[in-house]
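User: I want to check something. If I give you two sequences, will you return the structure for each one separately, not as a complex?

Assistant: Yes, each is folded on its own. Here is the first sequence with its structure:
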Amino acid sequence: MVAADVARGDMPLSHWDSRESGLLLDVRHLQELAVEKSPEAVNIPLNELRIRLYMLPMGREIHVICRSGQSACCATCILNPNGFNALQTVPGAKYWISVAGVDMKRKVKPA
């Protein structure tokens, strides 16, 4: 399903390396953040996103991240119909940790 959305152009994507501006939104749950955190991200867990939409900026690009991509895809599908400019950021945190060597040990900014 996700691959089909991307192939059709229904899922807007941004690559981790191409993010220059905008808000980085991490939709992982607190238990996942205990393992690794993105220091520049604002965290709103996916299961809380619908009730916390008011906390996000409407006129700014939102780069959505999670561990593997599935939750980021779901979050992007919630955000865009609600008037946000959201992009699923690929690859997910598994890549940053294993391949890119990104330091994810610093604190995540609470939303």
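And separately, the second sequence with its own structure:
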Amino acid sequence: MKNTLLLAIILFVFFIVELYAGGKNEAEIDIQDTDGWTALIWAVYWNRIEIVELLISNRANVNIKTTKQHDILSEEWLPGTTALRMAGVLGREEIVQLLSNAGANE
């Protein structure tokens, strides 16, 4: 988990620098770490609404599923969560609305 978190932080910083520098490459925005988490999913997890908005406005895919899903209640990893599902489980209502408005459907 520590390596995954480190990779996610590095990717997260990379995405933000790219976005502010004018990069619009969707493949870069939607890159997944070893657990399948994208910058959008990490932003939801850390409740970074402004980053969620920035990623959505730059066409991040709101329906990408992870290769592993963190079940907050049981602390188990299961296949296939989305940013919307994570936002719902974590009670991030404002982010749920943002993702729904952007076309998230799972």
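Because they were folded independently, the notes below concern the second chain alone. The two ends are 25 Å apart (CA to CA). Strands lie at 69-71, 76-78.
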